[in-house]
Write a structure and sequence with these properties.
Length: 347
């Protein structure tokens, strides 16, 4: 049977808008106010998208002849070049802080340990932040953990069992967040238990959405309103005491529904724009945090936070466009050649 070559262009647009929302969320000091208060929920959207797209690309192959180790090799190659670039930027910025503006967040010994562990894609063995040189990399780590679970276990489970796993995981997340209260939901979402739970729930739900997908398309005119609606959802100024409930509604219902609809919508007019947004989404996510920290340092020295943010965002869009084509793609081809091994069980 021929492989399904479907490209989810609307989901690509959704991914790009969410990545830009994450940048603005982390740059709240530059804007003077948090204009994307739900920006951290973009991570949950990424996990749902990942579950659907990976099931689309790999589920049949994993069930037939693709070995789990070969699958994980593909996933590591997909992440590593841009992850490494983000790590290098973070390490460079930390080195500059240690030399020019001590005391830095990390000691030289801690920075060295974090960099060495990071080269192996491992969390730092100290502190509460898994990746102190590039904070958002925590989600990539949990993505790989759930990818491994999918390849060796989840892929072979019945859909209703996956629904059960998602339901139990969501219930645990709800208890964790509601017990914590509304004081700092965004931070609590990034704790180790919540991080793994978010990844497992959303990824599993994405796989379920793929298996239960509707084949009948929706009109292309809905593509832009849907993508814009996701952006608006992340920007809604929800009252603090309602934030935990809103977050749970987003990750449990609203964002998965948006992904399910987006998988059914294709707009010929928007293919080029959505393709570009999808292409730059991961480069932006992988490298934006050290760039934002540099912007915060510049703002402390010179002010003009909005101007700095505008320049940084424009620069990120340009660098991400160039990096995706001239760095990420060639590096992935090289890594693919360097890491090939003899085929043992379909790998």
């Amino acid at each position: 049977m021929a492989a399904d070559r479907t490209i989810y262009h609307t989901l690509n647009g959704m991914r790009g808008v969410a990545a830009i929302a994450v940048v603005v969320f982390h740059a709240s000091t530059l804007t003077g106010a948090q204009v994307v208060p739900g920006g951290y929920l973009a991570v949950d959207l990424f996990f749902v998208l990942s579950g659907l797209v990976i099931a689309h690309a790999y589920e049949r192959r994993l069930m037939q002849n693709l070995a789990p180790l070969a699958f994980m090799r593909h996933r590591l190659i997909r992440f590593y070049p841009l992850y490494l670039l983000g790590l290098a930027l973070g390490a460079g910025l930390m080195t500059l802080e240690i030399l020019v503006s001590p005391p830095a967040m990390l000691t030289p010994a801690q920075a060295t340990v974090a960099a060495v562990a990071g080269l192996a894609f491992l969390p730092a063995p100290f502190g509460t932040e898994l990746y102190p040189l590039n904070g958002p990399a925590w989600s990539l780590f949990y993505e790989l953990v759930v990818n491994a679970l999918y390849a060796v276990w989840l892929v072979r489970l019945r859909t209703r069992t996956l629904v059960g796993i998602a339901a139990v995981t969501f219930a645990c997340l709800a208890v964790l967040i509601l017990q914590t209260g509304s004081g700092n939901v965004g931070t609590q979402w990034q704790s180790a238990p919540a991080g793994l739970g978010r990844a497992l729930f959303a990824f599993t739900l994405g796989v379920v959405l793929f298996r239960c997908r509707h084949t009948r398309p929706l009109p292309g005119r809905y593509a832009m309103p849907l993508v814009a609606g996701v952006g608006v959802l992340l920007c809604l100024p929800i009252p603090t005491d309602m934030r935990p409930y809103f977050d749970l509604a987003c990750i449990g219902v609203l964002l998965p529904v948006a992904v399910a609809w987006g998988a059914r919508i294709h707009s010929d007019r928007l293919v080029a724009a959505f393709t570009w947004l999808g292409a730059i989404s991961f480069p932006i996510y992988a490298i934006h945090y050290p760039v934002i920290l540099l912007g915060l340092a510049l703002n402390d020295s010179f002010g003009h936070g909005l101007l700095i943010l505008a320049v940084l965002l424009a620069g990120l869009l340009l660098v991400s466009t160039l990096a995706e084509r001239w760095y990420d793609r060639p590096m992935r081809r090289l890594l693919d050649q360097w890491t090939r091994w003899p085929r043992i069980s379909g790998g």
